[in-house]
Amino acid sequence: MVYTRAIVGLLALCAVAQCQRFDALNKYIIDKAAGTSIPVSAASKSLNVSIGMTLIQLTSLDSKSGDAELEAWMTFQWTDKRLSWDSATFNDVTITRLPVSKIWNHDVILFNGKTSASETLAVVHSDGSILHIPPTTIKTRCDVSNYTTDGTVTCSLKYGSWTYDGFLLNLVSRSTSVDLSSYESGGIAWHLTDHVATRELKHYPCCSEPYVDVTFTLTFQVKGQRYSGWSIFS
Predict the structure, then answer these.
(1) H helix count then E strand count, the chain
(2) For the segment 171-184, what is each residue's pLDDT rounded down to a tens digit?
């Protein structure tokens, strides 16, 4: 009843102030978002957060040090029922966009490297499902131990929640591989020869709760080279 009166008030105010199409809806969502707490309703349930990677470009890769820089679109999906709304009440709007700073956001990070992500809006659906795809620059150190034998370098990018265990945040992989639909392979000295995504559930002696991570493993091979033993021939 309280929310109904609030919605009516917002719509009436917008009618007078000539609000834009999404103003009343976005204010309604943000006002009830409770943005700092994870959307878990019971102790027996965890929040599923899915993660995926769309590889855009290998910017640089040093075959000696293993230092690499990549561009990717990281995809995150989860559901927060607190953000749901009745589309009929808001002119049949079923999708809106909101800053992630205004809603609860996961703390899934890259454990073995550094990332820099562009500030992008999250797509929020009327059922409370959320899609966030920040373009991300990734810097990491890859494994070069096989470079002198077969010319390959393997980059393993391990993601997980920084503070939530698996009882609260269940990290799942969107796929068993990396999305290459937007990958730009030209202009670099490396072929991408393999790519997999693996989910791992770990238990430690200290604790009863599980910890979940997803690792994206990318294998690159230098172009235009043939390898035999420890020798390199073009």
Answers:
(1) 3, 14
(2) 999 999 999 999 99
Cα–Cα distance list, 65 to 62, 78, 155 (Å): 6, 37, 12
Strand partners, 109: 160
Full DSSP string of 167-200: TTEEEEES-SS-B-TT---TTSSEEEEEEEEEEE
CA pair distance 64, 113, nearest whole angstrom: 17
pLDDT, tens only, 14-51: 443 445 778 999 999 988 876 678 999 877 689 999 99
Q: Phi-psi region for residue 143, left (φ > 0), alpha (ψ -120 to 50) or beta?
A: beta
90's CB contacts (< 8 A; 6+ apart) are: 24, 25, 28
Q: Which carries the bigger pLDDT value, residue 12 or residue 20?
A: 20
Residue with tokens 């009618």: 15
Distance CA 57, CA 216 (A): 15
